[in-house]
Design a protein that fits this description.
This protein has 254 residues and is an alpha+beta fold. It folds into two domains: 110 residues, Phosphorylase Kinase, domain 1 (2-Layer Sandwich); 122 residues, 2-Layer Sandwich (D-amino Acid Aminotransferase, Chain A, domain 1). The protein is built from six helices and 14 strands. Bound molecules: uridine-5'-diphosphate.
Length: 254
């Protein structure tokens, strides 16, 4: 087997050197983690699903002109991506109150927000990813004011696209997180969407039942995480359900 140089290993993914300069391979692991790695389990098959779901979303973002690091999926667990300089921010967009904003502001989970809200968290495990304001970001030089404008514009476009995509398959996009990176092309640099977008980084609720179809099933010990991710993939048409529809009668076994 080809030995590739491992560049970085995170909680859910490994980054390897890519086949050509300027490319990397992003490998999705089955590790489920929450609360800054205090809760950790292996969920067989999660990496495969996140690889497929993230591929589907990034392909669509690329197709509508939202720049991303994604090039193509290589196999069940890996995708080829462009090498970018990751900006050390988690950019969270919220449409409905849930999770930390519900707690922080005393909002009932499920309350529609007056408008979409963007928040920034400084990516730093030792500090538990503290929430920061634009002032901190520009003062400490994590991103310039112009870059922040680009990041916010990207975040809104991703939110608009994802909200519609999920609504079309009966899912409410409550909130999600993206990461952005600087892509250098010759003398030019532009900000692109990086990392992944999957049920690990989004809150997805069934429109009818409000059932959670995301990582909260793991965070909150609800069980059924893999099944929920499978259902997201099935609704998006990424995987075909193996189950026959109820009431479809006997089938001929060949
Ligand atoms: N999120 C993420 N990675 C993080 C923190 C949050 O992907 O390290 C996502 C999370 O899945 C949710 C959104 O960002 O979709 C907002 O998360 P929140 O601030 O409510 O924090 P949490 O409740 O996840 O601690």
């Amino acid at each position: 087997m080809n030995r590739r140089r491992r560049i970085y290993e995170g909680k859910g993914k490994i980054i390897y050197e890519g086949p050509e300069p300027g490319t990397l391979v992003q490998h999705f692991k089955d590790d489920a983690t929450a609360f800054n790695n205090k809760k950790h389990e292996i969920v067989d098959g999660k990496g495969v699903l996140n690889n497929r779901i993230s591929e589907y979303i990034f392909n669509h973002l690329n197709a509508i002109g939202i720049p991303t690091h994604f090039i193509r999926r290589m196999n069940m667990r890996e995708q080829l991506i462009r090498e970018v300089e990751i900006i050390p921010l988690e950019v969270v967009v919220r449409n409905v109150a849930a999770g930390s904003i519900a707690k922080r502001l005393g909002l009932e989970e499920g309350t529609q927000l007056p408008r979409s809200i963007i928040e920034f968290y400084y990516k730093n495990d030792e500090l538990d990813d503290p929430m920061v304001a634009e002032e901190h970001i520009t003062a400490f030089g994590w991103a310039t004011p112009q870059e922040l404008d680009d990041i916010m514009a990207l975040a809104i476009r991703v939110n608009d696209f994802l909200s519609g995509l999920f609504l079309g398959v009966g899912i409410r996009l409550v909130d999600f997180k993206i990461e952005c990176g600087r892509l250098f092309e010759g003398d030019m640099m532009r900000i692109v969407v990086a990392d992944e977008i999957s049920p690990d980084s989004c809150r997805l609720w069934d429109i009818e039942t409000n059932d959670k179809m995301d990582k909260d099933r793991f965070r909150r010990d609800m069980g059924g995480m893999l099944e929920a991710y499978q259902e997201v993939a099935r609704r998006l048409g990424i995987i075909v359900s193996q189950e026959r529809p109820v009431g479809s009668g006997p089938t001929l076994v060949q």
